[in-house]
Write a structure and sequence with these properties.
Layout: E1 2-6, H1 8-12, H2 16-31, E2 36-40, H3 47-57, E3 62-65, H4 70-74, H5 79-82, H6 84-91, E4 95-98, E5 113-118, H7 122-125, H8 132-148, E6 151-154, H9 157-167, E7 174-176, H10 191-200, E8 208-211, H11 220-231, E9 238-242, H12 245-257, E10 264-268, H13 275-280, E11 284-287, H14 296-303, E12 308-311, H15 316-320, E13 325-327, H16 332-344, H17 346-359, H18 365-380
Parallel strand pairs: 1-2, 1-4, 2-3, 4-5, 5-6, 6-7, 8-9, 8-11, 9-10, 11-12, 12-13
Amino acid sequence: MKIAFDAKRAFHNFRGLGNYSRTLIEGLVLNFPENEYVLYTPPFKDERARKWYEDLKNKGNLKLVVPSSFLTQTFSSSWRSLFLTNVLKKDKPDIFHGLSHELPPKIDQLGIKTVVTIHDLLFMRYPGMFSSVDRRIYKKKYTYSCKVADRVVAICEQTKNDLDQYLKVDANKVDVVYQSCDPMFYHLEDKAKQDEVRKKYFLPHHYILYVGAFSKLKNLEHLITSYKYVSQYHDLPLVLVGQGAKYRHHLVQHACKLNLENHVIFLEDVPSRDLPALYQQATVFVFPSLFEGFGIPIIESLFSGVPVITSTGSCFGETGGDAVEYVDPHDSDKLGKAMTRLVENDKLREEMSEKGHKWVKRFHLELTSTNMIKLYKSLLS
C-alpha cells in the first residue's frame, strides 16, 4: 500500500497533536515496513522534526514532500488547503490520512480512499474557551472532513459519541482506534540517567508529578489548591511540567496566595528525552483535567510504573480502566486526600503500579499500529 499523510503537525507541533502524528507514523513504519509512506508538510525549520524524520527514514520506506514552487512556498501556510489536492492527484496514493481533523478540498473527487482522525470537539463542548471566528472555522473544517472521508477515526469512544451528538456523524462511519505513546516510555531508565535528570531540575527523590499543558482546561489551579492538604502532612513538592507561560503566571500567583511558592515547581521547555526519568521517579502522577480527547500522559505514567489519579468523566475511564483512581475534578478536598493516601501507602502504590502495567499493554504501539493497518486494508478490500 502507498499511504499518504497530512503530516503538518508531525513537523510543526510538539504537543498533543504532533505527538499523535509522529507516534502513529513511526509505529506503522516500524511494524509494517512493506508499505510506502508519504509525508506531506509545509516547510519546517525545527531541528527536532528534522532529526525525527532522518532517524525514521533509515528504518522504512518513507518519503517527505514539501512545497517546491515559488507560489506554494510563498503561501506555505495555506498549502494544505489550496495546493495539496493537486499534488495528491499527481502522486496517486492508495490512502490519504488527515491526522488532525482536516482533509484537503475536493479530495473526494480524486478516487483516493480517505481517512480523517478527529481527536475531540472541545470547541463545541467548551465554546467559551474559543473565539467565535475559530469556532466557525473549526466547525466548517470538521464537518467537511467527516462528510467526505471514507472512514472517520475517533481516538476514543467519548469522541465517537461527541461526533454523533454535535456533528451528527453516522456512527457506522466512525472507527475507534486508540493511540499509543512514544516507545521511550516502555523502558526503565538506568539509575545514572534518573539521577542526571533529577539533579538537572534540582528535584528531590520524591515528588507528585503533573505533565501536560498549562491551561485552564487542565484544572491546575484546582490541583494546587488540593495539594495544599498534602503539604500539611508531607514535605514533597508538586512538580508541574508543561508549557503555557501566560497561564503559568496565573498559577504562580495562585500558589503564592496559598503560601506554596516554595512547594510548587514549574518546569517548562523540558526535552521529551527527559520525561521518562521524570515520570519514573515520581511518587504519584496526578492528571485532574476537566476534559481530554484521550489523555496521553495517563498511559505514559502507566507505562512508567507510576500510580495515577485522574478525573471522573470524559474519556478517562477508557484510558485508565480499573488501574487508576478517579476523583471528581471539582472536589479539592477529595483530590487532596487521594494524593495523601497514595503518598502514605507503599503497598497501594505497588498494587496500582502492577495493575496499571497490565492494563496499559492494550495501548502498546505494535497493537495500535496493527489496528490502524486493518482499517486501511478494509478500505482497499
